[in-house]
């Protein structure tokens, strides 16, 4: 089984702590102060959007039906069935932005400076996604899909 990120929009404060820790994690230095002075500023893979009174962290969902993989003309995106995540091979990417255009969630952005897509990889270089610990209110949830289903099921009254 593979874990995925889920968001409790009723808790999200739009503090953008998840964005900050993600960008620092994607920086060359992996340190806040040094990341601020890097020539090419690191971009966060998660973006917090607000609509009315709700805040929505948006990041790659590693969809079962992954239109970004099908749209990638260079084969830079692939789906790993074992890990249940979309992998990215920077060496194959041609910067066509087809993945950006077809993502149904708007979770892939373009980094025009580096000519690469910016999308969540669930912090493959760490034990767990950095945003998980950075969220001060626990709005970010990291569970297997089956665990989430159990959590969301209404409890039966006895």
UniProtKB/TrEMBL annotation:
Keyword Iron-sulfur: yes
Domain of life the protein comes from: Bacteria
Keywords (A to Z) from UniProt: 4Fe-4S, Electron transport, Iron, Iron-sulfur, Metal-binding, Repeat, Transport
GO molecular function annotation: 4 iron, 4 sulfur cluster binding; metal ion binding
4Fe-4S ferredoxin-type domain span: 3-32, 84-113
UniProt cross-references to InterPro entries, sorted A to Z: 4Fe4S_Fe-S-bd, 4Fe4S_Fe_S_CS, ET_IronSulfur_Cluster-Binding
Name this protein carries in UniProt: 4Fe-4S ferredoxin
Organism in which the protein naturally occurs: Candidatus Ghiorseimicrobium undicola
């Amino acid at each position: 089984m593979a874990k995925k990120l889920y968001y409790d929009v009723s808790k999200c404060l739009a503090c953008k702590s998840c964005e900050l820790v993600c960008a620092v994690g994607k920086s060359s230095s992996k340190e806040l102060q040094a990341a601020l002075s890097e020539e090419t500023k690191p971009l966060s893979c998660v973006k917090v959007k607000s609509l009315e009174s709700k805040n929505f962290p948006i990041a790659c969902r590693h969809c079962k039906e992954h239109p970004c993989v099908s749209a990638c003309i260079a084969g830079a995106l692939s789906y790993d069935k074992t890990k249940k995540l979309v992998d990215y091979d920077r060496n194959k990417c041609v910067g066509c932005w087809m993945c950006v255009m077809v993502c149904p969630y708007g979770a892939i952005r373009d980094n025009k400076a580096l000519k690469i897509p910016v999308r969540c990889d669930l912090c493959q270089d760490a034990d767990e996604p950095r945003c998980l610990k950075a969220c001060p209110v626990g709005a970010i949830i990291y569970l297997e899909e089956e665990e989430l289903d159990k959590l969301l099921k209404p409890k039966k009254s006895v």
